[in-house]
Amino acid sequence: MSKAASGKRSDLPPILTGVGAVAVFLLICEALIRAGVISQFIVPPPSEIFGSFYRLFTEEHIVRRFFFTTGESLTASIMVAVFGIALGVVIQRYRLLQQACETWVAAFAAAPVVLAYPLFMVIFGRNALTIIVMGFVSGLPPVTLKTIEGISGTRKVLVNVGRSFNLNATQQFWKILFPAAMPTIFVGLRLGLIFALINIVGTEFLINFGGLGQLIEDLAERYDLAGTYSAICFVILVSVLFFMALEKIERWLRPVD
Amino acid sequence: MAETGRLTQSAGTAPVSAVMLLRAAIILAVLAAWELLARSGWLYRDVVPPLETIVRALANLLSDPEFYHHLAVTLGEIAAALAIGGLSGLTAGIVLGANRFLAKAFEPYLYYLGPTPKIIFFPVLIMWFGLGSESKVALGTLSCFFPVALSVAAGMRGIDKVLIRVGDSFRASRWQMVLKIYLPAMRHPIINGVRLGLGVALIGVLLAETKLSSAGIGFLIIQAYSVFDMPRMYAMLIVLFVLAIGANALVGRLGGLDSIRRT
Amino acid sequence: MAAAQPKSEPILVVNDIVVRYETAEGPIVAVDEVSFIVRPGEFLSVIGPSGCGKSSLFNVIGGLLGQHQGTVRVAGETVTGPHKAIGMVFQEESTFPWRNVTDNVAFPLELVGLDRARRAERAKHFISLVGLDGFEKRYPGELSGGMRQRVSLARTLASEPKILLMDEPFAALDEQTRLLLGDKVLQIQQQLQQTMLLITHNITEAVQMSDRILVMTYRPGKVKRIVDIDLPRPRTSEIVTSEAFGRYVAEIWNDLREEASRGMKDEEAYALRHHGTAHE
C-alpha cells in the first residue's frame, strides 16, 4: 500500500503530467466520438457525461440516494467494528481457539462472500437488510484478523513491563495489549470498511434496491447512456473520497509509525 | 530464525490433536445447529434445508454434465481475465516501479481507483462487448488489473538495490535484468498480487454472470434462485467457495514453496 | 615471491577524479582530484574514515557512477560504464536468494551465454577456490554471512576480471571471520595472481592484505599518503602478530586519526543542526 506521491513541491510536475494525461485522454475521446469514429450510442462524449451530472442532482435525487447508501454503510460499519474487534479479541484470548480458528477466518476473508447475495435475498428479502448484512459479512473477516494479529504482535517487552507492575489479566489487556494493537486494528478497520462499502454498492446494483448502486442499474435499464456513465463516475468519486477520508483518519489517529 | 520477541512466541503451541478436536467440535456444533434450524420450521420452507437435502443436491450437481459445461465456461472466463488483467497489470507495475516520475504521475490513480466496486461498470461493458463471455472477461480483467499492478509496482521498489547493482556491474542487458533479476526478486509480491487478482477476477466474473448471462456458474445460481431451488443454490455456493478458497490456498502455497529467504 | 612486477604497465589508471553531490545544505565535494595507479598483480587498499568518499570512488572506478570529472582507464581503455575487466564485490549482501550457490556463481557466465554444462564446471572451480566445496546446491538462506560473501566473491571471480574491486566486503562480519576470510582472499590472490583494489576503513585488514595503502582524507576526499607495505609474501593472518605489522598499523592510524576525528566532529555538528528530524 505504498503511495508514490509524497506531496512535496518537487512532485508538482509528475502530478500535473498525470492530470494532463487524463485531460488529453478525455479530449481525444471527445474528438473521436464527435467524429463518429466511436459510436455515440455506445459511448457518449465526455462533455455530455459531465453535463448529465446536473440531472443526477435534480432529477435522480442523487443526494437522497447518497444518504441512503451512507446510512447502510454506517450501520454495516458499526456492526463490523463492534463484532469484528470483539470476535478478534475473544479468539486471541484463548490460544487453542486462535490456533483452531484463525486460518478459518483468513479463508473467509479470501472467500467470495458477495456471491451469496441471492441466498441473502431469499433469507432477508430484496431490501436494505440484505445490503447491510452483505456489507457486514464482507467487512468482518479483515477486522477480526487484524485484531488478532495486532494483539498477538504486542512486543514481549511491553508485556513484561506490565508484569513487572503486577497488572492482572484484565488490566494487562486494557492498558497494554489493546492500545498496542490499535494501529493494526485501524488498518483492519480501514480494510473492513472498504470491503463493506464496495459490497454494499455492488449489492445495491445487483439486487436493484437502495441508493447509489441502484441508481446505476436504473439508468442502465432506461438506456440513459450519459446518465449511466455519469452515475458511475459519481459513485467512483464517492468511493475514492471515502477511501481518502479513511486514510486521513487512520493517519490522524496514529501519527507515529 | 531471529527472535522477534512477540507475544505469541512466548508460550508454547497447543498440541495438534487438541486443535483438531476443537475444530471438529465447532464444525459439528454448527452442523447440529443448522439441522435443528432446518427441521424447526422456524424459517420459511426451504430457506434452511436439512443437511441431507443439501448433500443430495450436491451429489446431483456433481453428477450433472450440464454443471460441468457451465463450470468450464466460468473457469475459462476467469482464466482469460486473470491472463489479460494479470499481464497488463504486471507490465504496468514494472513500468511504474521502474520510473519514479511515471509512478508519481499515475500510480495514485491506480491506488485510489483500486478499492472501488467494479461491478457497476457492467452495464457499460455490456454495451461495449455484448452479452456473451467477453463482457464477463472484461469485468474480471478490470477487477484484476489493479491489485496486480499495485503489488508489482511496490515489489519493484522493494527490490534490494544491491541486486540491481550486481546486474549492472556484470553489464546485463535490459532484458536479462528483467528476467534474471527483477522478476525473481519480486516473486513474493507477484504471487501475492496474482492471489489478490485471482480473487477479484473470480468475483467479478461470477457477479457479472449472475447479473446477465446465459451460461456459467453465476447463471446457474440465479437460475436456482429464480425457481427457488434452494438446495441446488446451496450446493453451488459450496462448490464455488471450495474452489475459490482452494485456488487461493494453492497460489499462496506456491509463494510459500519458495521458503528460501535471507535472514 | 615478489609482491608485484616492478615498473610494468599499470592496469588501472585513476586520473584526477572529482565527485560532487548536491545536498540540502548545498554542494559537497566527496572526492577531490584523486589520482593513483595500480599495477598488475598488485594489492592496493584505499583506506579512509567514513565520509572520505571511498564508496563514491568505488562506484566511479566500477563504472556505476557516471557523474564525475576525471578519467579512469583500465587495461588501456577508458571506463564509461561497468567494464569487462573490472569485477565488483559489494559491501551489502548481494547473493541472489532465489538461486543456489552454483547458479549464483555461474551468473556472469549465464549472461554471456555459456552453456549449462560448462557453466556448472567453471562455477565449481571458483566455488572450490573460495572453500565452499560441497555447498553447490545450497541456497544463500542456508549459509552464514561469511559464506554468502564468499559466494559473491566467487561469482565475481567467475567473470575473470583483470582487476577485482571490493568495497568493504567484510564490513558486516565479525573480526575472527574477517581475518580468516582475509587469509582466503590472500590465498586466492596468490593463486590467480589477481590484481585487487580493496576499499576499507579497517586498518588491520588493509595492512594484512596490501602491497600499498592509499590513505584518504576526510571530505573532501584527497589522497593523503601512499604507504608501501613491505611485509613478506606469501602472507597469512599470522602476520598480525609481527612487530613490523604493528608499526605499519600505528603509522597509518596516525594519519587516519586526524581525519577520523574531523569526521566525527562534522557528524555531531550535523546532528545538532538537524535536531528533531529523522536522519536517514
Short characterization:
The complex is a heterotrimer of chains A (257), B (263) and C (280). By secondary structure, chain A is mostly helical.
Strand fraction of chain A: under 5%
CATH-derived architecture of the domain at 76-255 in chain B: Orthogonal Bundle
Greatest interface by residues involved: A-B, 65 and 68 residues
Tally of discrete structural domains of chain A: 1
Taking all Cα atoms into account, the compactness measure Rg of chain B is 23 Å
Distance between the termini of chain A: 14 Å
What's the rounded overall pLDDT mean of chain B?
Answer: 88
Question: Beta-sheet strand percentage of chain B?
Answer: under 5%
Largest sheet of chain A: none
Subunit organisation of the chains = heterotrimer
- CATH class annotation of chain A: Mainly Alpha
CATH topology-level name of the domain at 76-255 in chain B: MetI-like fold
Structure write-up:
Chain A is 79% helix and 0% strand. Chain A has 257 residues and is mainly α. Chain A has one domain (60-253): Orthogonal Bundle (MetI-like fold), CATH 1.10.3720. The two termini of chain A are 14 Å apart. In chain B, 79% of the residues lie in helices and 0% in strands. Chain B contains 12 helices and no strands. Chain B has helices spanning 7-10, 16-40, 51-62, 65-98, 100-113, 122-129, 133-158, 161-169, 174-185, 187-211, 217-226, 230-257. In chain B, helix 8 (161-169) packs antiparallel against helix 9. In chain B, 44% of the residues are buried. Chain C is α/β, with parallel strands linked by helices and 280 residues long. Helices cover 36% and strands 23% of the residues of chain C. Chain C contains 8 helices and 10 strands. Chain C has a 6-stranded mixed sheet, sandwiched between helices. In chain C, strands 2-1-4-5 form a 4-stranded antiparallel sheet. In chain C, strand 9 (212-216) and strand 10 (223-228) form a beta hairpin. In chain C, helix 7 (203-209) runs antiparallel to helix 8 (243-273). The longest helix of chain C has 31 residues, at 243-273. Chain C is globular and about 55 Å long. At the A-B interface, helix 1, helix 4, helix 5, helix 7 and helix 8 of A face helix 1, helix 2, helix 5, helix 6 and helix 7 of B.
